[in-house]
Structures are given as structure tokens and as C-alpha cells.
Amino acid sequence: MGAREAVISGHPDHNHVSTSYAERQNLTMRMSMRRFTRLTNAFSKKFENHRAAVALHFMYYNFGRIHKTLRITPAMAAGLTDQVWTLEEIATLAD
After folding, report:
1. Which distant-in-sequence residues (6+ apart) come within 8 Å of 28 by Cβ?
2. pLDDT computed for residue 10 by the predictor
3. Which residue in 20, 28, 44, 75 has the fewest CB atoms around it within 10 Å?
4. Cα–Cα distance, 31 to 40 (Å, whole number)
């Protein structure tokens, strides 16, 4: 663990700058995974287990779940894949 100081600068388009995108993602993650609720039996005590659960959530969210507004997965919308991944395909990546 540590921290380092770095200057990050740029020229963002202020019409597209909003914290609501990050807050929506945080809410989706918190509601989808009980590991983010401290007082449940699914609470992660080990950082490695927590990291693996978050990785599986984002893999399924982006590659295996059809989003209502897109009508396809985000990975398909970005051109990363041409199919909806099954849970079996996602699980084989963990091996």
C-alpha cells in the first residue's frame, strides 16, 4: 500500500463532466454485491476475495448482462465482442 503524488491535467468537455456517472456505478455495484454491505455474512474479510468478487461482477456486468437501454452488453456496444458471454465462459477465465 502506498501513495504517490502526480499531476494529471487535461481539457475535459465540461458538458460531459458529472459525478452522477460514478455515483450510479457505485450504487449498481453496492446493490448487486452484498460484499459491500458490512453487516452481512457475505462481507469480504480478505482483500484477495473481495478483489476477485469485484472482478467477477464487472466481467458479468460488461460481458454477460444485456442492458435494457443498450439492448446489448456494454462490451458489444464498445466492439470488444460479438456475443453475450455465458457464465461458463466467464468462469473458465478464472481458472
Report:
1. 61
2. 86
3. 20
4. 13
Whether the pTM exceeds 0.85: the reply is no
Measuring CA to CA, which residue among 87, 88, 59, 89 is closest to residue 74? 59
d(CA 62, CA 74): 5
pLDDT per residue rounded down to tens, the chain (95 residues)? 788 999 888 888 888 888 998 898 888 888 888 777 766 677 777 888 888 888 999 999 999 999 999 999 999 999 999 999 999 999 998 76
Q: What is the DSSP string of 1-45?
A: -------------TTS--THHHHHHHHHHHHH-GGGSTTSTT---
User: How many whole angstroms separate alpha carbon 61 and alpha carbon 56?
Assistant: 8
3-state secondary structure at position 48: helix
